[in-house]
Specification:
Strand content: 5-15%
Low-confidence stretches: 546-568
Structural class: alpha+beta
Helix content: 25-40%
Number of strands: 26
Distance between the termini: 61 Å
């Protein structure tokens, strides 16, 4: 019953603090599992036959909440003693443990009170109640667990209440004097209060050492509270007690995220046995879906709080032995789906629990990942895409103003409100009435101050309204001008300077996304949004230098350089010295001579990045860092690979038509794909084109969330099968191979009850780039309720073109896979 009291009560008691601290009631199955695991490893790994019941085992839950872990520890102790002794003094033994060696710390008064209530009731039920007259109490203290572990240099401030001062002293005695052997619990998850304050003695600074200098990781978030609690536990067990067990359920980012590489290396040096149970349920990395697409809720989802939490979670069990003479053992397994809590407890019945785990092999090459790796032995020896370029990839722009400076193509006139915003004669109130999002402060952005710094100093220029890929194949309009910051949060001036004719971009992300088998790279003639690839879309311009392209017109020629000599760009291939040395070894001595030669390596990288075999063989390596690309030894193989990359680039580049795919006589296998059709074969009118079947809806903070929509999967018709067979023959593919790549079944994707895109092959419908299911993502933003209007005829046909471009990519995959195998079999010995 505690969860039904605790969560609603705390929500009312202090909802903001609850949210900031990331406080959640831990499901009983998780608590039972973790306590049982700790009891087992004490017996099997630390030679304590009575486990938690051993009088030398001191236990601490540093964030005990309502006391669930402490209650379960005492129950486990009672069970062991009953089996061992079974006499009338067992209750007294459990009471002694609750008073003198099973401790809890809690910072919030409400759960602190509940924990004492739970422990008191447990002891009362065991026939050993706490005696009020003797001032007996359980070992749970109201304190900040992250401070007070060392004696202060100056006297403590007086609190004004003797009872609170006594509470503080009792907690500090536990922190400084008790030989804690077990630290377990559910630490809070959020980055409350930002970086670790002085009173915490910089708990996580140790995990940041060398991130920039040694690992070139410049952006990281190690200030979440759970990381501080890990450091507290590591220091307590490894550095002070010298042996023991740590078991937390926490955010699972630390398992493989690059930011935590130093933390993982530290764990490997301080612990001897490490088990990790990934409970998944993450909204960003997996979309709360199992690998086969079924629901995968948070393990914290309860009847009261059905949404659970957004982040994925994992249970850790870390053991430090007294005698340390072996390499650390790391084991990992995963739980998925709606029964994962029950499955976790059921796994305790296994005769050999270790047999359920996979062995992980953390090493420098995989950034000491605790997840078992899927990558070829050669992968770590290949250069990253960042190694190949002369300048560090540029971050894509980040708007962060509710998309007020990013609009759909039919809303170009709406940017004119900027003229009013920049006019000092127009009041803040008038601007707020015209465009509320311009005048909404958030975080570091102070709306009035930002406008004061801009108005009257810069002028609105319609030439700055340019085409802008918001997501893959989702091209919008944006007002891109670095001088408009901070209204447009982060438009990089250096990146904008690379916008000149004939200078496209390889767009790539540095770290992994929620779909590890999706291409990590994109190609665009335009600057893309920072979130175009889910995480940190960064731009590698093919050339360096130059003036920006001032027009966003899709149909204007982009091949000619600006003729004015004062503005003509001085360009060079964006290649590092090592990349140039590699090309020179193949006889390519002047990559600056023309655009095709300058793009040779980048087209090769694009061909590799879209090979399904490459993605499957190296998915764990790809998700940890910049993608690594094998370089072939011969010029012939490189040029053949680049030629394939050019075909990939053409399919991705929305600014250019492709003969046979989007223009001219359409190839037979593509002609039957995604044709807009009326229900029953009737003709459609423009008014029939609204999306009304639930493709998207507004979520929290007005964020657009994808919906299920309506997709009817079916078999291909004979006409469709014949068209695909005809196209396969022209491409030199077998019919079986063509269907394997496109999908063995096709789909009708509905706009509404009377209109649908007929025949979108399954592989095309499910195609993912950079973490986004391309067509479904596009549709989610254009649901009628969100868009406020029907689709235009041009937008409906845009989906048809999108599907055909993706189908062309799918049918290129056999060649891309063969090319990848060829390149990795004859690798160049990269030395960097």
């Amino acid at each position: 019953a505690v969860q039904y009291f605790y969560e609603p009560f705390l929500e009312a008691f202090d909802p903001e603090l609850r949210k900031e601290l990331g406080v959640w009631y831990t499901p009983p199955e998780v608590v039972q599992y973790m306590v049982a695991r700790v009891d087992t490893v004490l017996r099997e790994e630390l030679d304590l036959p009575d486990g938690l019941a051993d009088p030398n085992v001191y236990v601490l839950d540093p964030c005990c909440g309502t006391g669930s872990y402490l209650v379960e520890v005492l129950r486990r102790i009672h069970r062991t003693l009953q089996e061992k002794r079974g006499d009338a003094l067992v209750g007294a033994d459990v009471k002694a443990a609750a008073q003198s060696r099973v401790f809890g710390f809690e910072i919030l008064p409400a759960p602190f009170v509940v924990s004492h209530l739970q422990l008191g009731l447990l002891l009362q039920n065991l026939g050993a109640p706490l005696a009020e007259g003797k001032h007996e109490r359980a070992g749970v203290y109201l304190t900040n667990a992250l401070t007070g572990w060392e004696k202060p240099k100056e006297p403590y401030k007086q609190l004004g209440f003797p009872e609170l001062e006594q509470e503080r002293e009792a907690a500090h005695q536990v922190k400084r004097e008790e030989p804690i052997l077990v630290v377990l619990g559910n630490p809070p998850y959020n980055a409350f209060a930002g970086t670790s304050p002085v009173e915490e003695q910089g708990l996580v600074e140790l995990y940041k050492e060398g991130l920039v200098k040694e690992w070139s990781i410049k952006k990281f978030n190690l200030d979440d509270l759970y990381v501080r609690f890990f450091r507290l536990a590591e220091r307590r067990i490894a550095e002070q007690t010298g042996r023991g067990v740590v078991s937390y359920i926490s955010n699972f980012s630390y398992l493989a995220d690059p930011s935590f590489v130093v933390m993982r290396r530290r764990f490997l040096s301080e612990f001897d046995r490490l088990w990790f149970d990934s409970l998944n349920g993450d909204s960003r990395e997996t979309g709360k879906r199992t690998p086969d697409g079924k629901p995968d809720p948070s393990v914290f989802s309860t009847e009261y709080n059905k949404a659970g939490i957004r982040v994925g979670t994992a249970v850790s069990v870390l053991v430090r032995k007294k005698e340390r003479n072996t390499e650390p053992m790391v084991r990992y397994r995963e739980f998925w789906g709606v029964t994962k809590r029950a499955d976790l407890v059921e796994s305790l019945k296994a005769a050999d629990l270790n047999a359920q785990y996979l062995s992980a092999h953390p090493m420098r090459e995989n950034r000491y990942s605790f997840r078992p790796g899927s990558l070829t032995d050669e992968y770590p020896t290949w250069p990253t895409v960042a190694d190949l370029c002369a300048v560090e990839p540029y971050n894509g722009p980040i708007e962060r103003r509710g998309n007020s400076l990013i609009r759909l193509p039919d809303a170009k006139d709406q940017f004119a409100v900027l003229e009013k915003y920049l006019d000092p004669a127009v009041s803040d109130e008038a601007v707020r009435a015209l465009e509320p999002r311009f005048m909404k402060s958030s975080g570091e952005f102070k709306a009035e101050k930002a406008r004061a710094s801009l108005k009257g100093k810069i002028k609105y220029d319609a030439a700055n309204v340019v085409r802008y890929p918001f997501k893959p194949f989702d091209v919008r309009l944006a007002y891109l001008d670095s001088s408009i910051a901070p209204l447009f949060s982060r438009p990089s001036p250096e990146l904008l300077a690379q916008r000149f004719p004939g200078n496209p971009f390889l767009v790539v992300r540095e770290t992994g996304d929620k779909d590890s088998n999706s291409p990590p790279v994109y190609f665009s003639s335009l600057i893309c949004d920072y979130h175009c690839l889910v995480v940190e879309a960064k731009h590698i311009p093919i050339l360096r230098g130059g003036t920006r392209l001032t027009t966003g017109n899709k149909h204007e020629a982009q091949a000619q350089l600006l003729k004015d000599s004062d503005h003509s760009p001085v360009t060079a291939a964006n290649l590092s010295p090592s990349a140039r040395q590699y090309l020179a070894s193949l006889g390519v001595t002047d990559p600056d001579s023309d655009a095709k030669t300058a793009s040779l390596l980048w087209m090769h990288a694009l061909a590799i990045g879209y090979s399904p075999a490459y993605l499957e063989e190296n998915r764990d390596g790809i998700r940890q860092d910049w993608p690594r690309i094998p370089l072939p030894k011969t010029r012939e193989v490189l040029e053949a690979s680049a030629a394939l990359g050019e075909q990939v680039a053409a399919a991705l580049d929305t600014e250019k038509d492709i003969l046979g795919v989007t223009a001219g006589s359409i190839r037979p296998e593509l002609r039957i794909i995604a044709s807009v059709t009326g229900e029953g074969g009737g003709q459609l009118q423009p008014g029939n084109l609204a999306l009304t079947v639930g493709w998207g809806h507004h979520g929290q903070n007005d964020v657009v969330m994808p919906g299920k929509g309506r997709v009817v999967e079916r078999d291909y018709t004979p006409e469709e099968r014949n068209a695909i067979a005809q196209g396969a023959e022209a491409l030199g593919l077998s019919v079986e191979e063509a269907f394997a790549r496109l999908g063995n079944r096709t789909c009708d994707v509905y706009l509404n009850d009377v209109a649908y895109w007929r025949g979108v092959p399954g592989g095309v419908w499910k195609f993912v780039i950079g973490g986004y299911q391309v067509i479904k993502k596009w549709l989610s933003y254009r649901e009628s309720e969100i868009l406020g209007r029907p689709l235009t005829v041009e937008e409906v046909r845009e989906v048809t073109e999108m599907a055909r471009r993706i189908a062309a990519l799918c049918l290129l995959q056999p060649s891309l896979d063969a090319n990848y195998q060829r390149c990795k079999e004859t690798p160049y010995g990269w030395t960097g």
